[in-house]
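Action item from last meeting closed. Structure (380 res):
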């Protein structure tokens, strides 16, 4: 039932705009081929050319060949309706007919083509299509209910059942899981794995993990820049494409980047030598260290005094009651730094009448009273 698709030198246009350029590939029968690439590179456009769906857009046309088992789909006299019967399509969003029941949605293709089916043949076709889409057990008791009443994943599987009811030879899927939750996505992926035994499946996806899970071959599309046509960069087995690709995609270049660099940008910057008394530029900063004044580290005026722990002192010791009640020297000019409770505190100069500097003692801020007076409360 499945057939091989061969594309040779295909160019796709929307009026004067070329959307896809020089695509040549072969899609094997009874396999899943995934199209991946950035948005706007022509994946969906190229997919629609495989069953002439792009022709519904005014001004759209193609150049090149698309062969289905050797038969040119764009040959003179080929009916596009017959092409779409052989090459079915499932779109990005579920689109069941809202005014039709589940049963009527499955048979919609036959009704639109004026094909009449007897009651038993129609029931058998509905059941076979829903079983093929893994939906029969969920809807077999409500076939007369509207198809729009199903969940998103069920509606997408209903659209797949509607497509395979026409018994196509190729099934195209344009991002079938982009609007579905993870559980519904898993159901669609399992269904794709079952359908490839009978059909040739081509899928467009932006999910790299999904392409690696469900596809046998992967085609990578890319675009050289804004307004440029999309191109096929590489195609091959999925495992090889994701592990060891052989070609590099073209990089997007802007006019400013492609212009010739200025003389100032090309001229090398001379680094001063160490023997002339200067330092080399700082690599970790945009500005050179030569443009900044040298910083000098402030030296402490007095060494730190490390006091023993309070727990090791007797209760009668004044050092245990307070670290600030220890004797002071008459040297008022020295700005001493003491350690109190394991942290450094700043002792204000004794020349000030009412010192207001806050000191940190044991993690709490306390006020140093006037010189000669005892603390209002001991430190804890």
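Sequence:
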């Amino acid at each position: 039932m499945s057939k091989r698709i061969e594309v040779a030198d295909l160019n796709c246009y929307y009026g004067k705009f070329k959307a896809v350029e020089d695509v040549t590939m072969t899609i094997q029968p009874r396999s899943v081929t995934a199209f991946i690439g950035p948005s706007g590179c022509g994946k969906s456009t190229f997919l629609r050319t495989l069953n002439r769906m792009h022709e519904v857009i005014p001004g759209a046309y193609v150049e090149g060949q698309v062969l289905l088992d050797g038969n040119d789909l764009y040959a003179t006299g080929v009916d596009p309706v017959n092409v779409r019967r052989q090459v079915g399509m499932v779109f990005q969003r579920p689109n069941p007919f809202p005014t039709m029941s589940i049963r009527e949605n499955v048979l919609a293709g036959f009704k639109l083509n004026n094909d009449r089916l007897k009651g038993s043949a129609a029931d058998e076709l509905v059941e076979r299509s829903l079983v093929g889409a893994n939906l029969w057990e969920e809807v077999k008791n409500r076939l007369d209910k509207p198809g729009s009443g199903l969940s998103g994943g069920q509606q997408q599987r209903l659209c797949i059942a509607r497509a395979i009811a026409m018994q196509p030879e190729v099934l195209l899927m344009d991002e079938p899981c982009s609007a579905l939750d993870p559980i519904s996505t898993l159901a669609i992926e399992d269904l794709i794995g079952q359908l490839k035994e009978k059909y040739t499946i081509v899928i467009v996806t932006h999910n790299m993990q999904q392409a690696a899970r469900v596809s046998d071959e992967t085609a990578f599309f890319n675009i050289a820049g804004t307004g440029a046509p999309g191109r096929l960069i590489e195609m091959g087995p999925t495992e090889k494409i994701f592990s060891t690709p052989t070609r590099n995609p073209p990089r997007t270049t802007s006019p400013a980047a492609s212009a010739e660099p200025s003389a100032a940008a090309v001229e090398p910057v001379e680094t001063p030598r160490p023997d002339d008394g200067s330092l080399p530029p700082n690599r970790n900063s945009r500005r050179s260290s030569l443009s900044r004044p040298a910083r000098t580290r402030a030296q402490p005026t007095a060494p730190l005094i490390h006091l023993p722990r309070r727990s090791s002192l007797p209760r009668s010791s004044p050092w245990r009651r307070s670290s600030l009640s220890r004797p002071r020297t008459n040297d008022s000019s020295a700005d001493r730094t003491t350690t109190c409770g394991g942290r450094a505190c700043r002792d204000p100069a004794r020349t000030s009448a009412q010192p207001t500097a806050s000191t940190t003692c044991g993690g709490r801020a306390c006020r140093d009273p006037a010189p000669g007076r005892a603390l209002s409360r001991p430190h804890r």
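Note appended to the action item: The CA atoms of residues 221 and 233 lie 6 Å apart.
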